[in-house]
Amino acid sequence: MLRFGTIWRGRAYSREKSWTELNDKPIADCEILRNILQSVFKIYILLLVPSHNTTDGDLQMRRNKKERQQLLIETIKQNPFVTDEELAERYSVSVQTIRLDRLELSIPELRERIKSVAEKKFSDEIRALPLDEIIGEVIDLNLDDNAISILDINKEHVFKRNGIARGHHLFAQANSLAVAVINDELALTAKASILFTRSVKENERVVAKARVKSVDHTNDRSVVEVRSYVGNELVFKGEFEMYRS
């Protein structure tokens, strides 16, 4: 026995028919059902098999990618310190897309860009200590005036149990920046007054800003104030009295 539906005067109903009756009477119904199934099958195939023809959308996507990569080159050239997250937000794409663009364009990641800029710009300017002994990456420096460094807090900087950065890393960043900003081949920390204002966690970026408040050549002393931030939030502040020869 076969159960099927028949359309009769706008109403759908079901009944049982033998194969003999099926061959004798409802042939028109079977033809309608077969046509419907063929149409559904064709739609299903179209959905499964993508078109290989290049559409205007494909060309537009390629143009957008080419334009985006050109803008990416120009943006990083103007600001080597821009992050992948900032670039992704600017161009309305994912961070992974930006990373793939950088790989295609052979543009190094942020840390390598910062290191490269620092080596080119500051290696000959800093007098008090070698560039690689500074904790963090120097991104701006004016001797006996001001300086800025950044430190990305990674797994090696934090306590395992809570993911909070160890305080001596923040102190070392600030202290080494205070040494670096002194325009003297011999600069040593004579005294320091520091305060941690909030905990810093893994994957946060600490921006330390040093400012030379005073220079006393008579007593061979300079006072440097350092403030460190995560975003706009103050996380550390210190005042360093520096000995200079």
TrEMBL record:
Key word Disulfide bond present: no
A Pfam short name: HTH_DeoR
Keywords, ordered alphabetically: DNA-binding, Fatty acid biosynthesis, Fatty acid metabolism, Lipid biosynthesis, Lipid metabolism, Repressor, Transcription, Transcription regulation
Domain HTH deoR-type: 65-120
Alphabetical GO biological process terms: fatty acid biosynthetic process; negative regulation of DNA-templated transcription; negative regulation of fatty acid biosynthetic process
Listed GO MF terms: DNA binding; DNA-binding transcription factor activity
Superkingdom to which the source organism belongs: Bacteria
The keyword DNA-binding belongs to this UniProt entry's keyword annotation: yes
Transmembrane stretches, start-end: none
InterPro entries tied to this protein: DeoR_HTH (IPR001034), HotDog_dom_sf (IPR029069), Transcription_factor_FapR (IPR017275), WH-like_DNA-bd_sf (IPR036388), WH_DNA-bd_sf (IPR036390)
SUPFAM superfamilies: Thioesterase/thiol ester dehydrase-isomerase, Winged helix' DNA-binding domain
HAMAP family hit by this protein: Transcrip_fact_FapR (MF_01814)
Function, in words: Transcriptional factor involved in regulation of membrane lipid biosynthesis by repressing genes involved in fatty acid and phospholipid metabolism.
Assigned protein family: Belongs to the FapR family.
Name of the protein in question: Transcription factor FapR
Species this chain originates from: Peribacillus simplex
